[in-house]
Inverse folding.
């Protein structure tokens, strides 16, 4: 499954209730919502903002709650479901490196756990092109030391272990031959579970495979296909997340790519109270005159 298809499937499944930090504790979402609310309150009524890699619009919903007189548009590489919020326009299947807008029309740019997935060297000139001189820039970027990244690294390892194993092929053989032994299948699942003892997802997938075997026949085969698709989708999403989380060297290079069009302050770590390490980098700046 391609990365674009994986994200399209993710947003279709999550809908407007979904966010871009799977497994994040409520304190993280609340802290980020507060950050965006404060930013929205600093903007003049009627300000026209573009949210980059917007997903289903979590950032824009936070902005509107604090300032309902903003003009908001979001773009994302994935195909997106239609937004039910009348004041939010979502444009899917759009590359940030080729934005479908005229020059100098936006008063600000935002992004939360999204822009870093793009080719920033190609995206930065487009970001500058579509913004007005002095336009506000506010970005929340994945931090390599984030506990959320660490948690999802473990989840990815467990799911990928299943994807790389013979589990699904063995399950298909059992479905095709009713009454055949499942002992070997159970042993392989047990090995994966022992290697990833804190990952409930292994037991969830095992239960799903067991259910498909009990169903049997074409319906059982279809259920195994659905499980395989879900595994591929989540591996794509989590693998992409792990690949874009930035350490200090990475965020410095990221800021350097923006420097041609934006004057940015040094990136600041975002660390909600009670968490041992930062969850993200906060990048703020303005469009060069």
């Amino acid at each position: 499954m391609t990365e674009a298809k994986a994200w399209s499937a993710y947003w279709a499944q999550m809908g407007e209730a979904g966010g871009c930090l799977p497994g994040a504790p409520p304190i993280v979402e609340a802290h980020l919502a507060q950050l965006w609310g404060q930013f929205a309150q600093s903007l003049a009524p009627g300000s026209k903002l573009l949210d980059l890699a917007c997903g289903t619009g979590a950032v824009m919903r936070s902005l509107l709650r604090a300032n309902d007189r903003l003009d908001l548009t979001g773009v994302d590489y994935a195909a997106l479901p239609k937004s039910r919020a009348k004041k939010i326009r979502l444009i899917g299947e759009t590359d940030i490196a080729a934005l479908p807008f005229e020059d100098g029309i936006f008063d600000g740019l935002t992004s939360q756990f999204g822009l870093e997935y793009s080719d920033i060297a190609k995206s930065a000139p487009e970001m500058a092109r579509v913004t007005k001189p002095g336009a506000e820039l506010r970005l929340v970027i994945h931090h390599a030391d984030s506990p959320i990244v660490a948690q999802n690294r473990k989840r990815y390892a467990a799911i990928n272990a299943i994807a790389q194993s013979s589990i699904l092929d063995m399950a298909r053989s059992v479905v095709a031959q009713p009454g055949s032994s499942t002992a070997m299948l159970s042993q392989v699942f047990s090995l994966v579970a022992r290697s990833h003892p804190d990952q409930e997802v292994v037991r969830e997938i095992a239960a799903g495979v067991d259910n498909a075997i009990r169903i049997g026949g074409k319906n059982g085969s279809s259920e195994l296909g659905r499980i395989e698709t879900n595994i591929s989708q989540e591996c794509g999403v989590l693998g992409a997340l792990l690949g874009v989380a930035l350490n200090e060297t990475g965020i410095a290079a990221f800021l350097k790519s923006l420097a041609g069009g934006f004057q940015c302050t040094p990136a600041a770590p975002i660390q909600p109270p009670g968490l041992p390490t930062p969850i993200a980098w906060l990048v703020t700046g303005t469009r060069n005159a």
